[in-house]
Specification:
The longest helix is centred in the middle third of the chain and has 29 residues. The relative contact order is 0.14. The protein is α/β, with parallel strands linked by helices. A seven-stranded parallel beta sheet has the order 3-2-1-4-5-6-7, with helices on both faces. It has one domain: NAD(P)-binding Rossmann-like Domain (Rossmann fold). Helix 1 packs across helix 7 and helix 4 packs parallel to helix 5. The chain binds NADP nicotinamide-adenine-dinucleotide phosphate. The site of NADP nicotinamide-adenine-dinucleotide phosphate has 30 residues, from helix 1 and helix 2. NADP nicotinamide-adenine-dinucleotide phosphate binds next to helix 1 and helix 2.
Length: 257
């Protein structure tokens, strides 16, 4: 029987690449995002020979999660990619509260709900693999994207905790923790990081390589992966360097110019 992969945030960036690898591996896909671009992504994925169902839903809302859940229709999910996420940029006190709340709702609240549901079903069945897109930002306080880094610290931590609970289970949970990666995330209208040095950087990581590292780690049942040597080094140093210094380094990348 064809295996099923569900990918949130599959219209662009890391999520699109993850969906592409899953379809190339012979999985049927359910892909979800909230804008029109998800239809274009689905067309491209179908051209690779896959069966692709599209769900357009705002996953920062409970209704959006229920729409995706209804589309899965009780089917067994073999691979679940909790990837949809947003960033915000700019100084905390200047950010719009609705945008902050939406960011927390998407990156934390509704992502946790989806992981809880999918995780419970996989545990009951005794099989399945989950990949969560966290971030190395979760190891670093993030001036000028403070709430975003906080949400990723939550997700990275949640993953490592649940993995430990599942240490004797055949169900695997892998955390992909990319560094700054070349995707549209920095240039979305609500994301004021587009005015920051990080968005102009020429050394952003290649999106295909980042997603490949995540996909392979998931299939190997690894607990976590930080793609790239510099990012691995940054994570290692984050445990040794004072938080105030880490914050200052982050500011140099994220403060709008
Ligand atoms: N790029 C980086 O430097 C970097 C580094 C570390 C971690 N990450 C994480 O990687 C993940 C993917 O981001 P990306 O860099 O690939 O950015 P991206 O190209 O902007 O992709 C984000 C995806 O999430 C979807 N999405 C956003 N808000 C949504 C909502 N409310 N409901 C449903 N779907 C929604 C987007 O679809 P719509 O356009 O339809 O909203 C899009 O498909 C995120 O969790 C991000 O935090 C990125």
């Amino acid at each position: 029987m064809t295996k099923l992969a569900v990918v949130t945030g599959a219209s662009t960036g890391i999520g699109y690449e993850l969906a592409r690898f899953a379809v190339e591996d012979g999985h049927a896909l359910v892909i979800c995002a909230d804008e029109e671009a998800i239809e274009t992504a689905a067309e491209k994925l179908r051209r690779l020979g896959g069966t692709v169902e599209v769900v357009r839903a705002d996953l920062s809302t409970r209704e959006g999660v229920e729409t995706l859940w209804a589309a899965i229709e009780g089917r067994d999910v073999d691979l679940f990619f909790a990837n949809a996420g947003r960033a915000l940029g700019h100084a905390f006190h200047e950010q719009d509260w609705t945008a902050i709340r939406r960011l927390i709702d998407l990156n934390i609240r509704q992502t946790t709900l989806m992981l809880h549901r999918v995780g419970a079903r996989m545990q009951a069945r005794g099989s399945g693999r989950i990949l969560v897109t966290g971030s190395i930002g979760g190891f670093v306080p993030g001036p000028y994207d403070a709430v975003y880094n906080g949400t990723k610290a939550y997700l990275d931590s949640l993953c490592y905790a649940v993995q430990d609970e599942w240490r004797d289970s055949p169900v695997t949970l892998t955390c992909l923790m990319p560094g700054p990666t070349d995707t549209p995330i920095f240039h979305r209208p609500e994301n004021q990081l587009s005015e920051a040095p990080i968005a102009q950087s020429v050394s952003l990581d290649d999106v295909t390589k980042v997603a490949r590292a995540g996909y392979d780690a998931m299939m190997a049942g690894e607990r976590g992966v930080v793609p790239g040597f510099t990012n691995k080094l940054a994570v290692m140093l984050s445990g040794l360097v004072p938080q105030s210094l880490l914050a200052r380094i982050h500011r140099s990348y994220a403060e709008p110019k």
